[in-house]
Amino acid sequence: MKNSMLLLLALSVLILGCTGQTTKNGDNVSVLYNVTDENGVLIDDNKGEPLTFMIGNGEVIEGFNYAVLGMTIGKTKQFTVTPEQGYGIYDASKIRMATIESMNDAGVNPENGTVVYGEINKNRERGVIINNNGTHVWIDFNHPLAGKTLIFNIELKSINTRAGNALG
Known about the structure:
This protein has helices at about 1-15, 60-70, 100-105, and strands spanning about 30-35, 40-45, 50-55, 75-80, 95-100, 115-120, 125-130, 135-140, 150-160, 165. With about 170 residues, the chain is α+β, with helices and mostly antiparallel strands. It folds into two domains: about 20-85 and about 145-160, Chitinase A, domain 3, CATH 3.10.50; about 90-140, Thrombin, subunit H, CATH 2.40.10.330. Strands 1, 2, 3, 4, 9 and 10 form a six-stranded antiparallel beta sheet that branches. Strands 5-8-7-6 form a four-stranded antiparallel beta sheet. Strand 1 (about 30-35) and strand 2 (about 40-45) form a beta hairpin.
């Protein structure tokens, strides 16, 4: 009787995936998450559709990547990501000026809030028009979340190890 109980317990652990495996660099993981700013305002929520990425591959911001390391399937975690580990410090030098004429020539609506693309340090960057004085516009090429401290709530849904064993 005792041996059959132990066997049943061992099978339950195997079937349920309760191996206690923790995430590590190189694992593909799936997580549910939501993120708010410091005032509790919701910024993003993956609404039940897991985000899948490889840990350590640069697919997510640094602070998010580090927070997922060492988690086990089904565990939840709340953590804070500073601007340095998120989308960077807000950089005023990334605000550029352009003429309304150049915007019109490019077929761009020069209204505040219009998304534009430009070359910054030989990289194609996304910017948003933040000011229009009638002759010039100012375009902010910072990431919209630059300078913000972010609070994440995550739940680890699955781990696919480098060896290809799917858990979860």
